[in-house]
Amino acid sequence: MSRTSDDPRARRSRAAALTAATDLLVEGGPEKVTHAAVAERAGVGRATVYRHWPDLQSLLLDALAVGARPLLTVEDGPVRDALVSVLEREADWLNQPISASVIATVIERAERDEGVRRLRDEMFGRADEDLAGALSAAVACGELRPGVEECAQDLVSRILGPLLFRRFMLGTRLDRELVADAVDAALAPWQLGE
């Protein structure tokens, strides 16, 4: 076992440095996350930061990972209500400054960096798989028309796309009404007639 994993001082310095890196990412973007800036902000030596993250890319990737999270998971229950409930919680995160920094950096760097691409896949990549299962259950329960399961990826785009655009391009704070409107607009073509 490495000294870093069992030494409480090493764990504390790593945690302080990671918090500093995340704060710097939020305040100034990825170019502000440097070994020297992190060391100064965390109150640790630069050598300590280098010991935990020998290269700048690994430091930035860990700072991004602290703020990253899957953007769409689906819980049990009626699919519309489950989506609104989950996305309301995600809206709280999307309204925080860290989300803008993480998403912007992930979008900008994922095309050129395998580690960031994996992070992007964790955030966005499995949403359609999770949703497909919930949609199949909704069809079986008579909530939605058959065939919707094959459109899971399109529905993810139709739900998250407007929310991300409103939050990050228009600067709108997301609330329950915006979330419900996005879910309802995406599901409307698949709802069974009354």
Q: Describe it for me?
A:
Helices cover 71% and strands 0% of the residues. The chain is mostly helical and 194 residues long. The longest helix has 21 residues, at 8-28. It is elongated, with a radius of gyration of 20 Å. It starts with a helix and ends in a 7-residue tail after the last helix. The relative contact order is 0.11. The mean pLDDT is 89.
**Low-pLDDT regions:** none
Structural class: mainly alpha
- The biggest beta sheet, please? none
Rg on CA atoms, Å: 20 Å
Approximate strand percentage: under 5%
H/I helix tally: 11
What is the first-to-last residue Cα distance? 62 Å
Helix content: over 70%
Shape descriptor reads elongated
Overall average residue pLDDT: 89
Task: Give the tags.
mainly alpha; 0% strand; 194 residues
SSE topology sketch:
Layout: H1 3-6, H2 8-28, H3 35-42, H4 46-52, H5 56-67, H6 79-94, H7 97-109, H8 114-125, H9 127-140, H10 152-169, H11 176-187
Helix pairs in contact: 2-3, 2-5, 2-7, 3-4, 6-11, 9-10, 10-11
Summarize the structure.
The protein is an all-alpha fold and 194 residues long. Helices cover 71% and strands 0% of the residues. The chain is elongated.
